[in-house]
Design brief:
Elements lengths: L6 E5 L3 H15 L6 E3 L9 H19 L5 E6 L7 H14 L11 E4 L5 H8 L16 H7 L1 H13 L9 H14 L2
Helix pairs in contact: 1-6, 2-3
């Protein structure tokens, strides 16, 4: 059994993803914020997903070097938008192939959290609201309000991931996929 993760790198698109996923990972994994390095994301408007896709191969290479002497993990968060989770993962495979880096391998502590359509879909689901993965909820969540009020949603997701299942039916498939990524890639 590999040692407990001591350091984690978080690659994400924006502040909302950072705040939400950091809180979830800290609770799930018992990490302190000093054990987590957040890769800077672009400020302002525009397509931050391009930045995440272009940055991932370099972070994966750095992860492989560090995992030789540290117990580290790499978590990448990117909205699926109008694509699906598998298509986004294939984007990362292509980005790695383009620069000659082998994509993640079995046993590597490299996980993808890919909310479809965006992270707001997960937040609304965790607030006991009915959601689908086709509707764009991005403009229905106030960021400053969410930062103060996200703890109940974080606690609910942590309980669901630890318990092995999502409590409400039907859960967004992308959220179910993220819990599977956590269990298979990070929790051992």
């Amino acid at each position: 059994m590999p040692p407990r993760i001591a350091n984690l790198v978080l690659l994400c698109e924006d502040k909302l993803q950072q705040v939400f996923v950091l809180r979830v990972l800290m609770d799930l994994m018992g990490l302190h914020w000093r054990q987590i390095r957040v890769v800077p994301y672009p400020k302002g408007s525009g397509d931050a997903s391009h930045h995440v896709r272009e940055t991932f191969p370099g972070e994966l290479g750095a992860h492989r070097i560090k995992c030789n002497y540290l117990s580290v993990a790499l978590v990448t968060v990117i909205d699926a938008d109008v694509r699906n989770v598998d298509q986004r993962i294939n984007d990362f495979k292509s980005a790695c192939l383009a620069i000659g880096i082998q994509f993640r391998q079995r046993g590597e502590r490299v996980a993808f959290f890919i909310p479809k359509r965006n992270i707001e879909t997960w937040i609304r689901y965790l607030q006991d609201q009915n959601v689908d993965e086709e509707t764009d909820y991005k403009y229905n969540v106030n960021l400053s309000h969410h930062e103060r009020e996200s703890d109940p949603q974080v606690r609910r997701l942590v309980e669901m991931c630890r318990g092995g299942g999502l409590s409400r039916n039907p859960p967004p498939p992308s959220l179910k996929s993220a819990c599977t990524e956590y269990r298979e890639r990070l929790s051992h």
